[in-house]
User: Which sequence fits this backbone?
């Protein structure tokens, strides 16, 4: 971190600030010029509050040089992280596809879809048991029962399962769940993130609707700082002025997050765009941009899905997409 | 709700859809024209999922006529709701000011600030005990101890207290808290909202950074649907492309929310703009636009505040603002 | 401007960059520390392209200390600018209200409205002759004929007139127009701004839908750099995810722009919110936040207005608003 | 268009509105139900102002069924349009790459880059002569001289040229230019669009920073309505809260615009992301999403580029990207 002091700062002010900064365990290097004095801080500046230093009337500006996240930072962990889940892995050279219905509705439904997506090549099964719904009057998911049905589908197909947690109090129900999803609305539910940091479960962390890359990485840092390194980042669209699509898929998130972090980055085109016919081109784009995998909604009867039917692919369309994705992957790997 | 069918829809399709809609307990009125057939649905359409109906290939469009919220809706509750908290009330003809530091730091600090804001005319004391911070390495609040200190300040000054809950597991610590704040990041933490609906505590519900008016009202509806009618809506800025200010205060939220809902609407200019010198003009604007009150950060030593110092007013500047606000209020009431 | 070099920068690289910077006529002060070397640039850094310097591989960061605008900058012109237009002035202690229909439709219409708004206390008349419409099939304004009708209304009432230019080729038709408006869509039509800089006409410059404060000030700078100092800034709402209102009025723009610039700042609540019933509370808010004036749409028959009827006040509602605004102004001035 | 009337609308009101609508040359079909009366309008509803009808107190809602654009609409022109420019074509089965420097700086520079991009397989040469710059003090382009240099590069390489117009007054200088670019800031410069509609030049129309898909198509409609069908749509990033990248590339624009319109859709990843290292993955993503082509900045010496050096590829990196794009294209075409 660099602190730029105004030209007319008194030596007393400099000394006082330097002393204060050293009390945080930092080394402070002073560069004096005619025009400005510049302090270079060495050490762990993560605890320094930039805004507070900016408030001092002799401070011209403060500039963070290091990112405020360490565990998630590629600088300190140059190799890609690979998260292993059963036989699957997320983050390696080949893409991983997580597919399934938005919400678990019945044993028949989830097993039918699970078999179909497995047949097409999906490596993990997704399905919502606890559903965050804007309206208190909308279907809230089968909840505990939904998790039981997912576990039956896992037993039937061997696919590891991914499902969303909405509150800490539900955590004990997730013992046999393979990957715990934290939804966009909970990306900054910091108490939840802390507790997930105390487990060793892989966490699929979705970017919030209006959260920056850095905020997403800071939320990953919450989980990692408490001991759980198994975090998967997921871009699922941000909110913009454009209302034709449900959200706006920020495809640049893929290469940017991969540069900033070693964590695997996957993309959820279904929630991003919200309209089934646009899911395949966006899925193709995500893999071409370097995503480690995809999260795709598939439903055996989209028109009757209890939520988000509009964005679900039929098993047939999913199979076609998987064939195209595999060709694409081959072409990209040859390179 | 109105469902517009395409011109060439077969009678069988119409019958099937009508039957399906009636199974939700709705009356369906059919208007047949040369060009389109239009279904008018009467009854509680809150449970109908618009997106699912839109997916039917013979449906041209679906249009919700009624808002999806009932308890929060002014149409069914024309008079302004007034939330009483101790001697204070929020939502009546006169403005209510909630003031205090971003976070509780020490007994001396909170009592000093509490006395100062009371002397200037604030009716409630705010202070953060549990602090949502972007970084896991930043100060997370005094937590349980912070609530104890707030209660001491309440005892000392008689001011009712407002403080933020971050997770359901903290709820029992809030027994003596007068108003429970739900922060912007938790506006769609639906499990939390449901549980708060089972209390009778006044809930100060902040609008999320990228949430629409309707989503804010739906979150209020979550609380109200479970039995707690004491909800205060709070506009605190939304996220836009403009980065000079912390967020962009959406002043239109005040008259719009007042039109749509009977719940009191207050404004937090401190978090919205993030820079102390701009808080007074925005506070004045909020009251002129019809806000029922304000949430303002005041700190006895902003340059040393452990969070958000940049946006805190000193007690002196707060006193000046309160004098101007009272003159403004008088002028507006005369009208 | 401050350039922070990486710690391992060679003396040759430093010399080469310093030489390059001096060739722009800048003084360069070098501060050498153990950790970083920092260059402080003195002089007119407006021509330096930050991005290019950032590309050098030994540059850690570049930080602009001075704003890139000079003529519009309050630092070099501490007193408020006052723009005089006939008997009216914009930017003084008292508010100035510019009112009239969105578009000029007929002689009777514009004269009726002009008389009505004058009677209520408006100091200038607005009316669109050239209309920027999203659709090529929508009414495009009476164009040259519209300007003639505005001049008739000016003759009849004595009110100076404000109307929008859409292209340089129209400039000669604006000889007798008192204030030339540059609409939000043309805020960065730089060729137009340059030519307006060669006139001495007051220019009402509207902020673009997604333009920052700095970009607005840079567009003002375009006009001023070519010799025309008579620029009025206008906040008219920015585009966000909220679609209930037409745009989102950024009320913070008022105090922020007033801090950064000496130019008068007015607000157009009609275009910002797009719904007539919300115009009065937003107009009140704008004046309370410190705006120098308002731009308000008034139409004698909003339901038949050829554009933007939904956001126009009737003359009666405008009269009521003006009475309230004057009371408000009195209360604010007493202070 | 469908107009939904409130249940208690009097027959007189219905008659009056129907009469009014018929005066626009529309057929009006009336569907009377117990609950609502619904009017279905047949004919060219492009001239009907929805907002004005909504203002009538007996109107519940108005719903546009048809898109307000006709010439650009795929419904009336199911086949993809192909724009031919010299030997190149934009919109066919194979991708078209337009490459070159942000701005033309010298004869040597433009010819060097032109030869390099041609060698790598680019089909058209881009280069800015008139440069829209936020600051009046920044380099504004070589202007007329820049166009002359582009024509020399065209003569040298045979590549057709694409360059931006900023104002109508420049039009005569564009006689020998092959494709005229309308920049994002001028997307709603309607007078310019109209005049370009009177030429037969291919127009590369960039989406504005905060413009919707429909607004982009309406701007294309302006050009087409005046007789010029040769419009190429270009997605180049929209403005969001994320500031790490210059803008946010809206990759969904590709499949959505292709569904709505028959016009070719290309992508400019350079301006969208603003950082050279992220251009290749976004270019790959764009082609995978179905884009007809790319607009890519290439500069022989990015660190010395007079504008936008940060986002320019070197000729070497461009050559590598082109090799990867061709492999990708082959894999996609096999499908």
Assistant:
């Amino acid at each position: 971190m660099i602190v730029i002091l105004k030209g007319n700062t008194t030596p007393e002010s400099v000394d006082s600030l330097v002393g204060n900064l050293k009390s945080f365990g930092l080394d402070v290097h002073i560069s004096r010029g005619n025009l400005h004095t510049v302090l270079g801080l060495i050490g762990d500046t993560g605890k320094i509050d930039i805004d507070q230093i900016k408030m001092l009337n002799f401070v011209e500006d403060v500039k963070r040089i290091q990112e405020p996240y360490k565990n998630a930072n590629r600088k300190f962990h140059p190799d890609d992280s690979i998260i292993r889940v059963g036989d699957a892995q997320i983050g390696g050279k080949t893409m991983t596809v997580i597919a399934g219905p938005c919400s678990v509705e019945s044993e028949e439904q989830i097993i039918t879809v699970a078999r179909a997506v497995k047949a097409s090549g999906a490596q993990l099964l997704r399905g919502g048991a606890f559903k965050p719904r804007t309206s208190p009057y909308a279907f809230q998911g089968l909840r505990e029962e939904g998790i039981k049905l997912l576990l039956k589908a896992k037993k039937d197909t061997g696919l590891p399962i991914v499902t969303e947690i909405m509150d800490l109090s539900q955590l004990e129900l997730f013992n046999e769940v393979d990957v715990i999803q934290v939804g966009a609305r909970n990306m900054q539910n910091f108490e939840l993130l802390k507790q997930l940091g105390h487990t060793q479960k892989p966490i699929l962390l979705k970017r919030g609707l209006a959260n920056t890359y850095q905020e997403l990485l800071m939320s990953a840092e919450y989980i990692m700082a408490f001991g759980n390194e198994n975090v998967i980042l997921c871009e699922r669209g941000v909110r913009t002025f454009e209302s034709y699509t449900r959200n706006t898929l920020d495809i640049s998130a893929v290469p940017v997050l991969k540069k900033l972090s070693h964590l695997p980055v996957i993309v959820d085109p279904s929630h991003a765009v919200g309209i089934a016919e646009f899911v395949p081109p966006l899925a193709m784009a995500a893999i071409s941009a370097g995503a480690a995998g995809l999260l795709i909604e598939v439903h055996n009867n989209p028109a009757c899905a209890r939520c988000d039917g509009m964005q679900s692919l039929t098993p047939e369309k999913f199979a076609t997409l998987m064939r195209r994705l595999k060709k694409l992957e081959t072409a990209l790997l040859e390179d």
